[in-house]
Design a protein that fits this description.
By secondary structure, this protein is mostly helical. It is built from 6 helices and no strands.
Length: about 140
């Protein structure tokens, strides 16, 4: 198993060492506190405070399931992520996961949703941006087990 891991991971690590700057350049460009992104968001939200930008990004990200629409030009979906019929079920599922957070499956769901929302929306420009949030959607019924 160790040999298999080394055979797979050593070339990846070597590649990341050689091209790490290129791999992470896009991440630096869309991070909200990078110079170009914060200037864009300060102008977009008509404020001078980075804290207000962070609060606005958080509000838009938390409302993505039933209120905020997509800001991407790729999809341009002018509606929330879920319809008004499905959004309450998402809220009930989230409440169930919070209530049973000690169960490993529910903990992983909460961690996955939290990390996806924070890293894919709150801390990136122009929230909510569906191409960065597509991982927040459940992959199948096995996530309920």
């Amino acid at each position: 198993m160790v040999i298999g891991i080394l055979l797979v991971m050593v070339p990846v690590w070597f590649s990341m060492l050689l091209t790490g700057q290129v791999l992470f350049s896009r991440s630096r460009e869309v991070f909200i506190f990078s110079p170009g992104a914060i200037d864009h968001l300060l102008n977009k939200y008509s404020t001078t405070s980075p804290f207000v930008v962070l609060l606005t990004q958080t509000k838009l990200s938390l409302l993505m399931f039933n209120h905020s629409s997509d800001t991407s030009t790729q999809f341009g979906f002018p509606h929330p992520m879920f319809s008004s019929l499905i959004s309450p079920l998402i809220l009930l599922g989230l409440g169930f996961a919070v209530r049973h957070w000690k169960d490993a499956n529910m903990s992983f769901i909460l961690i996955w949703l939290g990390l996806s929302a924070v890293l894919g929306s709150i801390l990136t420009i122009d929230a909510p941006f569906w191409p960065r949030l597509v991982g927040i959607l459940p992959r199948g019924p096995y996530w309920l087990l």
